[in-house]
Amino acid sequence: MTAELLAIPMTPGGRVDVYSGVARLAGRLWASRHRAPGGPARTVLVFVHPSSNFLGHYALEAFAARGVDTVGLNTRYIANDSALLMENCVLDVAAGVRFLRDEGYDHVVLIGNSGGGGLVALYQSQAEDPTITATPAGDPPDLTAADLPQVDGIVEMMAHPGRASVYTEWLDPAVVDEGDPLTRVRDLDMFEPRNGPPYAPQFVARYRAAQVGRNQRITAWVRARLAHLAARPGGRVDDLPFVVHGTVADLRFTDLSLDPSDRRAGTLWGDPFAANYSPATLGHLTSLRSWLSQWSLSDSNCDGPAHLARVSVPVQVLYGTADTACFPSHARALFDAVAHDRTELVAVAGADHYFQGQPGLLDEAADRVVGWLRREGLA
Fold it and tell me: For the chain, which domains are there?
């Protein structure tokens, strides 16, 4: 089975939010498709994430082998979320869905994987009943005026509720001076031995409140900076980049009694303290406008449970009990949000976030997803 490269037409935005001129001017989104053997298939599954490169997604071949075409779709922000706007990601998903509808598929199903969980919920919510007229900074796109073809089903796979919520759960509250990330407040430091692990309930409550407080402080600072830019003569600069330090500091990384599961202590990037400061981990570089759309807990439009509550299509939530990034409470929040009964919650025992070295568990996940789709009449 081989991958087929898809060049999907899209309309670039009016802002320079992607560094590469080649990418901006191409007017294309890139995706890879694995065809089901013995096709043509009636159903196509589309793996979605705001910024991860899904051209070589680990699950494409396994899912296609079960009789459904399977696509890994990239947005315009592939491997670079520093200026990402969630609302533009909705337009990019729409371009992919439209392209596949035009190819003749009877059923298009979105699979929100990891950070794609909130995005697919946001997409279908706005496709069914659009309400968002601008980004949180007041910029286009207006999703109520966009062509957003509906899909036939949603799968949340190893997913969390949304980038802003999980980012806040991971934000390090011991960093209180944004210009001095290595000076830490000991009473809010998860890496201070006297605090744990295990962490006392009182510490957990203070820690979680301080994480929300830090996110809110950054949002207030962003709003003030945008107002400052708007007041400057000429208006030639309306956005700026900035750095956020300490973004991998969830207490669940070191205390396995919190949100209990079969996971090991640690993060997707190894040692929690090193990952917390590593430039390659979550959301360290962003712009003012992107912060409001992507990372701000109070301002982002991408709240997965809130949007899942508005969708009418079948929803399956599948999680791994050994996942070190998306926890059982994330899966439960997504599942519980669905307002109808065409839904299913599936736990794959022992599966980690990427099914690393777990081909049998990946096969189990593919069987559970495709089997559910067939019971729903979607495959």
Answer: 3-161+302-375 (3.40.50.1820), 166-295 (no CATH)
